[in-house]
Amino acid sequence: MPAEPSVSPSRVGVWLIGARGSVATTAVAGCAAVTAGLHPPTGMVTETGVFHEAGLPALSSLVFGGHDVVDCPLPKRAESLAAGGVLPHDLPSAVTAELAAADREIRIGGPLRGDTRSEEELVDDLARDIRDFVRRSGLARAVVVNVASTEPVPEGDALPASSLYAAAALRAGCPYVNFTPSMGLHHPRLASAAASSGLPYAGRDGKTGQTLLRSVLGPMFAQRALAVRAWSGTNLLGGGDGAALADPAAAAAKNAGKERVLADTLGTVPEGETHIDDVPSLGDWKTAWDHIAFDGFLGTRMVLQTTWQGCDSSLAAPLILDLARLVARAHEVGLSGPVGELGFYFKDPVGEGPAALGEQYADLVALAGRLRQLAQPPGSVEPRAERGDPEDLPGEDR
Ligand SMILES: NC(=O)c1ccc[n+]([C@@H]2O[C@H](COP(=O)([O-])OP(=O)(O)OC[C@H]3O[C@@H](n4cnc5c(N)ncnc54)[C@H](O)[C@@H]3O)[C@@H](O)[C@H]2O)c1
Description:
Shape: globular
Bound molecules: nicotinamide-adenine-dinucleotide
Number of helices: 12
Strand content: 15-25%
CATH class of the largest domain: Alpha Beta
Radius of gyration: 21 Å
Number of domains: 2
CATH topology of the largest domain: Rossmann fold
CATH architecture of the largest domain: 3-Layer(aba) Sandwich
Order of helices and strands: EHEHHHEHEHEHEHEHHEEEHEH
Largest sheet: 7 strands, parallel
Number of strands: 11
Distance between the termini: 33 Å
Structural class: alpha/beta
């Protein structure tokens, strides 16, 4: 049997749930491209001066793996993203070695169609895959990041897939990030395990387009004492995300986050709805319209309309790299529980925190300062992922 690699204090794992999806593939390819100096780190907040000397792991130290339920090889997935214009056309061949390396670390997750494993067995299997990855790659730690398809809001007590993965992350002793609106660690049955895990976590649902804009415009109307009467939005989107959100139950989870930002920044819930339409031929490109009807002085009626045309995966991927680095560093310095200062990245942030982007950015800058100041605890090279205590995890199942 080959010898176990020694643990490197500088190698950090990024375990992606939904590892063969658009966002995950773009994050893996993008990390390799930036590391190789092929592209600048545009869109990565952690590469700005604010994070200078904050002790974040280097991009070159990130090692990727993950779970998915499909088996399309990552280099092939990257080629189809390049064909769709999401990745530069020559990038998949330039970073094929890195894509292949990540591909070798992807395991089939679950639950699979007709899966007969119990919740307990599934969590154990998923956690074992993560622990094996950490051990095999000699990692100091690994962050589990959920970028799998959005699932419908679950009914009943059973743990949905996203929560099984979140429980597995805790069981493997890994910090956790939920970039999707799925339940993940929010499930009430995981609350005590999350609280007692001593691990940092962040989520939910990355804020990359329409909601990002809302978290800037909402405070503007409130601060200028303009009365928003109605705020309506429509999104046209293709790709895997568009297909998943064609299910009204899945879209409901996403729209709740978009509307919450308005309620939190305006202080009231304005009239109007948000819709998501699946338009497969748009692929990864999203068009989002907002129509904001507001009153000015003496009740004068006015309207602001915005059009956002974005490529979803290229907006999301740099944030995945940011979050993995930030949560890895938070874990290294011993932070635990919800990292509220990461609300900047999310539609529905964990913990207490402001909803306006400007205030959220100030919190992020404060976190950077804290991370810079916190001395690395002695012996922090010990792989914490090896120390996950299965007895801590979902209590009622054990
Ligand atoms: N700008 C953005 O792209 C953005 C912003 C916020 C949130 N998100 C969320 O990120 C997620 C990923 O988006 P995407 O465009 O990459 O979607 P995608 O459809 O391309 O990829 C999702 C991947 O998840 C996999 N998957 C599905 N069920 C799984 C399971 N049980 N276990 C493991 N893997 C599973 C699929 O096979 C697929 O490979 C979505 O939930 C989306 O809502 C994206």
